[in-house]
Amino acid sequence: MIKVITYGTYDLLHYGHIRLLERARALGDYLIVGVTADDFDMTRGKINVQQSLMERVEAIRETGLADEIIIEEYEGQKIDDIKRYDVDIFTVGSDWLGKFDYLNEYCRVVYLERTEGVSSSNLRTEKRKISLGLVGEADVLRKYVRESAYVNGMQITGVYSEDKQYVASFIDHKFLYATYEDLIENSDAVYIISSPISHYERVKYALERGKNVLCESPVALTAAQCTELFQLAKEKRCILMESIKTAYSTAYHRMMLLAKTGIIGKIVSVDATCTSIRKIDKNNREEMSRAWNSICAWGPTAMLPIFQMFGVDYKRKQIITCIRDEEFLYDDFTKIDFIYSDAVASLKVGKGIKAEGNLVISGTEGYIYVPAPWWKTEYFEVRFEHSENNRRYFYQLDGEGIRQELVSFVHAIEIGKECSNIDEAITEGIARVIEEFNAEKDTIRIQSL
């Protein structure tokens, strides 16, 4: 029996893919098809893949051409697979001519001519691009402009900001909008990172006009407002996603999945710290009105692993905070302890202090350590009682998670279904904590710094 193996992404499976698979199958008696994993595609620069791995695998399966489907996950796997499956022929499209000649040492290499004029890239390009408007004053807007260039199916409409001088430093003035209303009218979707006080009204305005929304966390300052906005999004058949770019970091996402497998036993504690020193002039009231306090700027990121691991139904919590400005409840530092029925968690956030920004997940058999800055890490360790059993994991980080977040947002809009890495319950849970912080519920104040 002659075994043939081929590999590909097979995004938006089309006639060209099928013709290539048919010709690959004709080379032998048994065809193995390797479908590249999402992470491996990203390391090769394929950030614009539209379909999930499972969708692409299922599309190959439905053709009936593959006798066996495997997943390609790492560089050099082709050699391992050829040996493991005792492959006779490796085949791939002729646009890779010469690229895989090194495999001749292990099997016969055949390059097949591709079907002219048909490609997944062309199909993606032919789709109408989603126009995205940006709203706010934060430095991260510059990153969203840059990272959107890597996302197929999206284009930036323009920016509305109350700080036009800042925005003009990275975007052409012709893309600056005089009003939020004008930007919404000329956009299919909007990313909002204005002052948290304005989030609820701006998200609601956009949704009421049938626009999709990606809003920096917190989406609103009360849980009830979040619930209302999600319901409105469903009624308008729009996508509403909370933006915490850490949730789309490959290393973070894989770390959370790994933790839930039981690799460190039963998880009993999560400790997250996020700080950055930002000097704010307390006497400049306009600056204070737009400033993000510590609980809004860092709280959602620090709460993310806690709520994703243990959920939002904690038994009680204790907030300890240091308030610099009473009018805007600007906290230089806040610590929150959460107590669950069988676990505990804590977070420390601050824009007026500096601390080691790491993440530690503790279990009965070991712990996971993510070094600072854990919220945009490429690396984490699983550590055990006996250090010889420790494991290290590395994953490439592209665009601090922004690229993948935008890809998920575009995909959700295209299929009309939520693709967020953050559950609605977590979005509402984050808002509830901030709401109770503002109401000083379960709160102890310490002396101002």
Could you walk me through the main structural features you see in this protein, from its secondary elements to its overall organization?
This protein has 449 residues and is an alpha/beta fold. It has 16 helices and 19 strands. Strands 18-17-16-15-11-14-13-12-19 form a 9-stranded mixed β-sheet, with helices on one face. A 5-stranded parallel β-sheet has the order 3-2-1-4-5, with helices on both faces. α9 runs parallel beside α10 (223-235), α10 (223-235) runs antiparallel to α16 and α14 packs across α16.
Describe the protein's topology.
Blueprint: E1 3-8, H1 15-25, E2 30-36, H2 38-43, H3 53-63, E3 68-72, H4 77-84, E4 89-93, E5 108-112, H5 120-126, E6 130-136, H6 140-148, E7 154-160, H7 164-167, H8 180-185, E8 189-193, H9 196-208, E9 212-216, H10 223-235, E10 240-243, H11 250-259, E11 267-275, H12 285-290, H13 294-297, H14 299-310, E12 316-325, E13 330-339, E14 344-350, E15 359-363, E16 366-370, E17 379-384, E18 391-394, H15 402-415, H16 424-438, E19 443-445
Task: Explain briefly what this protein structure is.
The protein has 449 residues and is α/β, with parallel strands linked by helices. Helix 9 runs parallel beside helix 10, helix 10 runs antiparallel to helix 16 and helix 14 packs across helix 16.
